[in-house]
């Protein structure tokens, strides 16, 4: 099965303006770990927003795990995203006054399917979130602390736990390491990839940082994929 399949996709932010993205063909295989690179403004976040079904392309096909997103209503797309995509945002998007544990648990609040996957593995969401946060290096007291009182590195781990809870088949991470020093960044990526591999989760990781390439089994330069703005 392919995790992502794109054909003749075109997306413009505004009608009658030149397209930001034109991608004739692109596939990501299930279980791949992919690094997506490109200069600032090249459309990386825009592409992620299409993959997550937050925005929809004006033309072309975009399927995730053989489900064409264009066939889903807005509400079905929201449900599909909650069930199937773990998303780590650049700014993490944690709720500041909720504890690390409750932030991680939000992933299950919006998805029965995630809860069911955990139940099938003989676990509870609370226990699974707690275990994930511990594996990501948070202490008992940090797990109970409100997110705003954690360091940037700790907040990033909470965002990773929330994204991975309930084993979504696709993890999307948008530059989540830009605030970290090299050592913390490398440890974090290694952990993220180890946890993803356990669930056979496909990973799409966006970064500017060429030094991270060695962690991923495929590499895509968005400017090679995207034909928008290129004369034919
Ligand atoms: N919400 C939006 N409304 C209108 N235009 C947008 C919006 N978001 C992005 N754009 C435009 O789309 C183009 C691509 O932006 P995008 O944020 O996808 O690039 P990026 O590669 O993720 O950049 P960076 O590495 O700086 O985050 C830019 O020209 C930007 O101005």
UniProtKB/TrEMBL annotation:
Signal peptide positions (record): none
GO molecular function, one term: ATP binding
Ranges where the ABC transporter domain occurs: 4-232
Keywords on record: ATP-binding, Nucleotide-binding, Transport
Keyword 4Fe-4S: no
Top-level lineage group: Bacteria
Record flagged with keyword Chaperone: no
UniProt xrefs under PANTHER family: ATP-BINDING COMPONENT OF ABC TRANSPORTER-RELATED, IMPORT ATP-BINDING PROTEIN
Protein name: Methionine ABC transporter ATP-binding protein
């Amino acid at each position: 099965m392919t995790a992502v399949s794109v054909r003749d996709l075109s997306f413009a932010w505004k009608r009658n303006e030149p397209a930001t993205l034109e991608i004739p063909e692109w596939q990501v295989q299930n279980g791949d770990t992919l690094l997506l690179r490109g200069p600032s403004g090249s459309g990386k976040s825009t592409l992620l927003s299409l993959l997550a079904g937050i925005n929809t392309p004006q033309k072309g096909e975009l399927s995730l795990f053989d489900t064409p997103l264009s066939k889903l209503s807005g509400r079905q797309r929201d449900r599909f995203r909650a069930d199937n995509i773990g998303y780590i945002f650049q700014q993490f998007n944690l709720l500041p006054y909720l504890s690390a544990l409750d932030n991680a648990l939000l992933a299950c609040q919006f998805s029965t399917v995630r809860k069911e996957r955990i139940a099938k593995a003989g676990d509870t969401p609370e226990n699974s979130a707690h275990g994930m946060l511990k594996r990501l290096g948070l202490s008992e007291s940090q797990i109970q602390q409100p997110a705003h009182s954690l360091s940037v590195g700790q907040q990033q781990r909470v965002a990773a736990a929330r994204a991975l809870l309930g084993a979504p088949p696709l993890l999307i991470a948008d530059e989540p390491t830009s605030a970290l020093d090299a050592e913390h960044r490398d440890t974090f990526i290694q952990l993220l990839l180890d946890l993803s591999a356990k669930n056979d989760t496909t990973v799409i990781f966006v970064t500017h940082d060429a030094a991270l390439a060695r962690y991923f089994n495929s590499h895509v330069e968005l400017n090679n994929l995207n034909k928008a703005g290129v004369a034919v």
